[in-house]
């Protein structure tokens, strides 16, 4: 009797097993087909996919901003850094998915690039914490820094990626050759507009020039400005934001629409992306008036950054320098008359729009307009 049940059990297994295997194979095929469909959709809708992934990363980890900035939960800082690199990471993911060429180069080159980027990023972060934030230097701070800066080092090192599409996408982030002049202009343009707005505000009787002063002077002031600029560049104006907004989204949008329209659209997403950082800073992000005013205030800056990116033939480095220089200037002029300054930037942006006729679509062979590469390159 026992043998009969055993034989029956084995027979049942023999009958069921092929059916189970068939279902497993079918499920696997469905999973592969679904992944292939998703990959194909990303390849053919890169701009839409970019916004979805960038916001999924940055807003998905957005809760870490308040935790780190206001509650002192510094263990979440690495996740906050990933969130702030969301646009760049989205560009990397889509470029890797869309790649059609075989890997090139060596792993050693990539890892050397990563280690160098890691070391430099850590030094910049420590310098800012020590000289700007006046945080005590300690082994704990060093260890915390080495972990936190990994996302930034990863983004920079991807300029040496073995995946051709990723390397091509981020190559201009580290390439100064050919854009020296534009890099210098990017470095001084917004600070010059800040300085110009100060006497204009004084002449209008709004704010005396004496309202702006520095506690440090000479080489000490220059050193602080340099440290603050490098911090803004690495964390995260160039590596997190410009690598995504201008480096990835803008050229793809400009392959379809004019630079001006692209700036109008990009400005909407650029502002919304800041929801969680601005919420952590205590800004009134839940009021429609705030977003309407913010969109108008950011728009001239979006045009200026777009203009620099296009003029420098699609340089992420130039856009990153301009963004970092702007935020550095704002940090050293906290009492800035923002109304006058915003109008000053608006006039500059209007001149750029008219001179370059930014309402017209770029030529298809313009370096700042994306062209989908073929296997033949």
Question: What this model shows, in words?
Answer:
- There is one protein chain.
- The chain is mainly α and 377 residues long.
- The chain has one domain.
- The chain is built from 17 helices and no strands.
- The radius of gyration is 25 Å and the shape is globular.
Question: Would you summarize the structure shown here?
Answer:
The chain is an all-alpha fold. Helices cover 73% and strands 0% of the residues. Mean pLDDT is 91; it is low at 1-15.
Protein topology:
Layout: H1 2-44, H2 46-60, H3 63-69, H4 77-84, H5 86-98, H6 107-132, H7 139-148, H8 150-157, H9 164-170, H10 180-203, H11 218-242, H12 245-254, H13 259-273, H14 275-280, H15 288-311, H16 316-332, H17 338-356
Helix pairs in contact: 2-4, 2-5, 2-12, 3-4, 5-9, 5-11, 6-7, 6-8, 6-11, 10-16, 10-17, 11-16, 12-13, 13-15, 15-16, 15-17
């Amino acid at each position: 009797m026992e043998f009969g049940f055993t034989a029956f059990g084995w027979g049942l297994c023999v009958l069921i097993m092929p059916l189970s295997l068939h279902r497993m194979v079918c499920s696997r095929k469905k999973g592969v087909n679904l992944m292939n469909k998703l990959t194909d959709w990303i390849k053919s809708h890169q701009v839409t996919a970019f916004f979805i992934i960038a916001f999924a990363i940055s807003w998905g980890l957005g809760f870490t901003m308040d935790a780190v900035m206001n509650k002192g939960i510094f263990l979440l800082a690495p996740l906050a850094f990933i969130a702030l690199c969301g646009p760049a990471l989205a560009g990397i993911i889509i470029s890797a998915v869309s790649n059609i060429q075989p890997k090139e180069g060596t792993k050693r080159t990539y890892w050397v690039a990563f280690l160098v980027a890691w070391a430099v990023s850590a030094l910049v972060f420590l310098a800012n914490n020590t000289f700007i934030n006046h945080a005590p230097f300690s082994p704990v701070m060093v260890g915390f820094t080495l972990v936190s800066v990994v996302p930034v080092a990863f983004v920079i090192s991807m300029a040496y990626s073995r995946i051709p599409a990723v390397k091509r996408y981020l190559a201009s982030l580290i390439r100064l050759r050919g854009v020296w002049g534009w890099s210098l202009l990017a470095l001084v343009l917004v600070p010059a507009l800040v300085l110009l707005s100060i006497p204009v505000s004084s002449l209008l009787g709004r704010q005396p020039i004496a309202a702006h002063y520095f506690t440090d002077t000479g080489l000490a002031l220059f050193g602080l400005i340099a440290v603050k600029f490098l911090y803004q560049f690495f964390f995260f104006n160039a590596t997190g934001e410009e690598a995504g907004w201008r480096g990835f989204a803008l050229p793809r949008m400009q392959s379809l629409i004019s630079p001006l329209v692209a700036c109008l659209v990009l400005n909407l997403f650029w502002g919304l992306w800041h929801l969680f950082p601005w919420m952590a800073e205590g800004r009134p992000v839940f009021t429609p008036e705030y977003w309407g005013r913010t969109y108008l205030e950011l728009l001239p800056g979006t045009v200026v950054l777009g203009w620099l990116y296009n003029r420098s033939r699609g340089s992420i480095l130039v856009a990153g320098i301009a963004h970092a220089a702007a935020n550095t200037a704002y940090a050293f002029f906290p009492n800035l008359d923002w109304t006058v300054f915003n109008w000053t930037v608006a006039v500059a942006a209007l001149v750029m729009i008219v001179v370059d006729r930014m309402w017209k679509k770029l030529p298809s062979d313009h370096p700042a307009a994306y062209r989908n590469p073929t296997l033949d390159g």
